[in-house]
Amino acid sequence: MELNAEHPVVLLIGKTGKHLIFICAGKSTLGNFLVGAPQDNELFPTSAKMETVTKECSAGIMLIDDVQYNIVDTPGLFDTEQGSNPILEKISEVVNKCAHGVKAILIVFEAQRFTDEQRNVLDKIRTFLGKDATNNIILVFSKANRVQTNNRNVMKRDCVRTVSSFIQVIGNRWGISPNPDIFSPDEETFRVRLREIKDLIISIQGVYTTTQLEKNRNLMKLMAATAITAIVFTFGVILDGGAL
User: Fold this and answer.
1) pLDDT value of residue 50
2) 174 within 8 A of 167, measured Cβ to Cβ
3) Which residues form the AIG1-type G domain (predicted)?
């Protein structure tokens, strides 16, 4: 995967996998929308089959108001073949390649399934990237129905509390990726929703950097080591017959 160091980076993150609840989050579809790739010549492969299509990070160039951006499609979190940790490592490698940092992190979320797995996705991404990434995250709903897509208030109303709270934490930056099974690219709703996502990308001030990622990873390692030490100490006291 080659990135143009002169262009800002937009990262696509989502969940996919072989189980039914994990099928195709829609991030690769959104990536194709943003770069303007026709459905019969996709830059980022998509599939409706029960398998994860994106296995490695892949990149393309998108244009917003005459400004070029690198857009990077990442493998799906919770991919049942690879697991989440290797995927997070690949995302880390992408961030490390971004000389000027990451402009926007688009977390693509399937609108029709507000489940415990989705909560786990949000928790895992937030924990891995750290609070420094909060100012660069945009939540994008995919596979919304016609009513939700036509009326953002309906989409917002349908969100469970966990998702609504997350939206507030990231500064109310969220959008809707039009469902290609419902809307064609020449429809106004399709164009408006896509433009809203592009405007959110433009509006972000500052970038998420390698330094911020490494700082958070070091903090996570320290917290894990502290927790292990506490468990070992507690277990030792119990074996000795002592009391805490």
Assistant:
1) 39
2) yes
3) 10-179
Q: In whole angstroms, give the CA distance from residue 164 to residue 158.
A: 9
Question: With contact defined as beta carbons under 8 Å apart, do 68 and 58 qualify?
Answer: no
Q: What is the mean pLDDT of residues 218-237?
A: 60
Q: Is 175 helix (H, G, I), strand (E, B) or coil?
A: strand
d(CA 89, CA 204): 25
Query: Could you give the CA distance from residue 155 to residue 149 in angstroms, rounded to a whole number?
Result: 7
Which tokens go with 189? 């709703």
Length of the chain: 244
pLDDT top residue among 2 and 71:
71
Q: How confident is the model at residue 72 (pLDDT cuts 50, 70, 90)?
A: confident
Q: Dig out the tokens for 190 from the structure.
A: 């399709």
DSSP string, 50-67: SS----S-EEEEEEETTE
Per-residue buried b or exposed e for 83-100, using 16+ beta carbons within 10 Å of the residue's own CB = ebeebbebbbebbebbee
How far is CA 186 from its chain centroid?
26
> For residue 67, is it left (φ>0), alpha (ψ between -120 and 50) or beta?
beta
- Compute the distance between CA of residue 193 and CA of residue 185 in angstroms, rounded to an integer: 11
Q: State the pLDDT at residue 82.
A: 47
pLDDT tens sequence across 149-173? 999 999 999 888 888 888 999 999 9
